[in-house]
Amino acid sequence: MTVLTTPAGSRQDAGTKPPPPVPWRQMLWVTWRQHRGLLIGVLAAFIAAVAGLLTEGLRIRHDYAALTACHPAASPACVQLSNFFGSTDWHVGNGVRAALLAAPVLLAMFAGPPVIARELENSTFRYAWTQGIGRARWTITKLTLLGSVLTITALLISQLFTWFFAPFVPYENLAVLTGAVFITRGVAYAAWTLTAFCLGAFLGALVRRTIPAMAITLGAYLALAGVAWLYLRPHYPLRTFWPMQVFEAGWLLALSAGLAAGTVWLVRRRAA
Amino acid sequence: MTVLTMPAQPAQDVTPRPVPWQRMIWVTWRQHRAMLISLTAVLGAVAIFLFAMGLWVHHNFSVLMACAAATPNDCGALNQSFNNTDWTTANTLLILMNLAPALIGAFTGPAVMARELETGTFRYAWTQGIGRVRWAIAKLVLLGVVIAVLTWAFSQIFEWFFAPFLQQQNTLTVLSKTVFDTRGIAFAAWCLAAFAIGAFLGMLLRRAIGAMAATLGVYLGLQLVTWLFLTKHYPVSVVTSNASLFTGGVSSSLNGLPSTAPDNSPWVLATWNVGHTSWWRYIPVSRFWPMQFIEAGWLLVLAVVLGAATVWLVRRRAA
Amino acid sequence: MNVIETRGLGKRYGNAWALRDCTLAIPEGHLVGLVGPNGAGKSTLMNLLAGLSVPTAGTVTVLGGRPAGSPAALDGIAFMAQDAPLYKHFSAGDMIHLTRNLNRQFDEAYARQRLDGLGIPLKKTSGKLSGGQQAQLALTLALARRPRMLILDEPLAALDPLAREDFMTTVMTAMTDNGVSVLLSSHALAELERIADYLIVLGAGEVRIAGEADDLVDSHQVLSGPAAAADAYAARLAVVQDRRAAAQAHLLVRSSDQPVPPGWEAHPVSLEELVMAYLRAPGAIGKQQPARIEQAEAAR
């Protein structure tokens, strides 16, 4: 049997010099391994979304181009094109938009709460929070890594969706300031996704049990989205697209940061 | 030393009397108290909201109908405002109502079975006198019944709430996909099926959160398949060459005016011509209840099959 | 250097004090046994030392003045909680990887080699390992962190005798080879008696007595004599336990320097008897102990 020996600690390092902190990048593997299911699911959804949006988007643009180029507009051939675009293509576009709107809601439920709540429920925090890295850095790194992945994915998808949905805006006479269109483009969609995640993580740390936290987060996120839609957005100080986008992303980012800080505070405070 | 001896009673001693089913009522209640209370609270809160909003909507609608009866041509603005405010909210609620069974199933099904496995408490529950099979059957049946009753009551309130819009919106009938599943016994049947899907997936996957996500996916897939393919083929359709049923329709409103009678336009499935006659295959609105029974029927069968499969998994699973 | 120093440490949950007035000063290099019945406050004390909870009263420092729970403390202490919590869906290989990433230093080669030697498969999910294997895995992870101190909360409770033997051999080897101090709790005194060279006796949230095992035994004796005279002497001596059997009285007293009264006999006391006596006695006696023991050491 081989035995490794390290010299026993001597009196000189009796607490005078703090040990170097555990490097942040070591948490990369930890976060990946513990949230593999979520990350793989998000990746799969992203790939499916990109594929779907590209193929259907090209087809819809083609249909729309044919429709706009068709003259005279009242001829049976053009009416048929119009009907097709108005029914099938519109259903596809609307359906994709509904799916896009549902995604942050699902993330609020599934991504955020387990981060802290699952650790508490299974008592594995007794292992995780007594490791050298310490519970604060553990929490901050996880929230940052997961939050970044989700936000960047959402940003990319919303840009692709903007391209995909473009033909329907003039067709249905929609304004980009219309709620249902506004939140799927620009930076608003990514900001809502980040908020959904941070809200879930915070409520998970507060409620400490995963499934109840999922239900509460669902309700809280829907309530927040509803309030923003009905009462906040109509009263923004700015009324053009990009300023409104930046304003909305701004307060959502501040809220997310507050929720994340709140999560870290709850983790720190939690006594066994 | 005193020794007591009792004569052996073969039949009684070898096969103990089974634990009565009623015991499981208290067990199920106590274990899933939080879930049942939460479900009732959420449905109750929304029901109160629907009731309050519904009174307001019904009032607005009766004003609209009074206007339509008195001066039909001057009610365009009133119709428009009813559309913009009341209908917008009601439409959102309609969409949420269609999504509700998926969420109910996701939050109730896996919690019953998967949690037991994840926390290891099945090692206690399945070694009690009642035995794991009776335990599982009793839980699934008791919770299934409670969920079906609660959701049926809830759908009745929604039905009352939504009634004015069926008349005011000229594209909606009780057979419209998004409406059909929120009334009658269909809503409760969908919720029951969602619960059964959740319990089965929970037992299969053995992990609560994963089972919740899977339940949402499976339910939505099932609902889409039903909407796109199944409903059309219910054996309630009628074939006719009577064109008068399909002209204009009682409910088509001109110039955005409200109709004064409920919408009864039939659902046309197919149309073809034979020689000079046109034929239609359609489902009349009067077939609403037969369709409800068919849909609730197969959903109930699905729920029972999934329940049996869940019990079979319980039996099979080595601790 | 004192690996553990507490002053007036207390922890309250709601209205009940799980631990109170705990003052300890434990030097390094010992295997400290924390013994007491269920509910005595052992886990509470360990959670405070590991930084999992914060005191309601008093202070706690570890490894020569580092505040419990601080990064410096977390770096030097490896804690193994009750029921060896591991991520049930992680394999042993995953747990090694995880622990390596969560710490500044980790001896991965040692961990793998040890698991190999114990026959614990690296790819099986830890939830499927036996209780003994899970405990050994958790211990391996703790030891591979090369800590200055190991804190083990009832690690032997779920283990069979063979697994216990393996476990304790590993712990003792780590102590002698790597100079690790160990704090281990148990409610089975018999096994602690064999291995621990420093003892803390906890009863109803209070330290009844604490000190090096040899000192504890040497500083107590049982005086046996006529029951009639016992009451008079009991008032004068520091009596831990007063046992009467017919006309005889057996007084367990705390002092080895007192002259034996005429007509009385003095017997040495075993560690087990001593611990049982202190657990049964009301708490007042124990509080004075640390001072007396320190005096005994200072006089040395």
What's the structural blueprint in terms of helices and strands?
The complex is a heterotrimer of chains A (272), B (319) and C (300).
Chain A: H1 26-34, H2 36-69, H3 76-110, H4 112-121, H5 125-128, H6 135-165, H7 168-171, H8 179-182, H9 188-207, H10 210-232, H11 241-269
Chain B: H1 10-14, H2 23-31, H3 33-70, H4 76-119, H5 122-125, H6 132-168, H7 177-180, H8 186-205, H9 208-230, E1 238-240, E2 267-274, E3 277-283, H10 288-316
Antiparallel strand pairs in B: 1-3, 2-3
Helix pairs in contact in B: 3-4, 3-6, 4-6, 4-8, 4-9, 6-8, 6-10, 8-9, 8-10
Chain C: E1 2-13, E2 16-27, E3 31-35, H1 42-50, E4 57-62, E5 66-67, H2 71-76, E6 77-80, H3 92-101, H4 108-118, H5 131-144, E7 149-152, H6 161-178, E8 181-186, H7 189-195, E9 198-203, E10 206-212, H8 213-218, E11 220-226, H9 227-236, E12 239-245, E13 248-254, E14 265-267, H10 271-280, H11 284-287, H12 289-299
Parallel strand pairs in C: 3-8, 3-9, 6-7, 7-8
Antiparallel strand pairs in C: 1-2, 1-4, 4-5, 9-10, 11-13, 11-14, 12-13
Rg of chain B, Å, rounded: 26 Å
Spans of at least 5 consecutive residues with low confidence of chain A: 1-15
Main sheet specs of chain B: 3 strands, antiparallel
Task: Sum up the overall morphology of chain B in one term.
Answer: elongated
Distance between the termini of chain A: 39 Å
The value of Rg of chain A in angstroms is: 24 Å
Main sheet makeup of chain A: none
Kindly state the percentage of residues in helix of chain A. over 70%
Q: Biggest interface pair, residues each?
A: A-C, 39 and 50 residues
Instruction: Please identify the oligomeric state.
Output: heterotrimer
Number of helices in the DSSP assignment of chain B: 10
User: What shape does the CA trace of chain A take?
Assistant: elongated
- Helix/strand/pairing class of chain A, anyone? mainly alpha
Indicate the mean pLDDT of chain B.
85
Instruction: Give the overall pLDDT of chain A as a whole number.
Output: 88
Cα(first) to Cα(last) distance of chain B is 43 Å
Number of strands of chain B: 3
- What is the topology, as strand order, of the major beta sheet of chain B? 1-3-2
The fraction of residues assigned to DSSP E strands of chain A is under 5%
Number of helices of chain A: 11
Fraction of residues in H or I helices of chain B = 55-70%
